[in-house]
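step=predict obj=YhjD n=119
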Amino acid sequence: MTRIPEKDRDILEQAMYLPMLLTILERDRNIFDKGQFKLKGPYLQLIEETINAVQRDLKEVKSAMRKGQMRVEQVARDEAFTMFLFIYKGFEEQHNYFNPRIRNKVQELLELYLYKRLN
């Protein structure tokens, strides 16, 4: 049984997912920058704007975590699962996440930030 309220657990999970999303976007930016595209400017601009939006949201998440006395740390990883340690107001909880679930959630966030947020 978790002691962390759902709202705060969502914040902790955002602190897990958003840095992963930033890593993917930065890799993609490098691929577009080095790629053989005739008009790479629009792609790079879209990725830059998306990176900025993710960074703004990550800043808000980190601020909420400071105020709520929360931290998240990756503890272990294997082929199937990644374990995170959630520290919430002095309490520690370990949570295992199925790696395909993490990938799917990051993909959902990528779709949200790339084009669904613009609608």
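step=describe
The mean pLDDT is 94.
step=end
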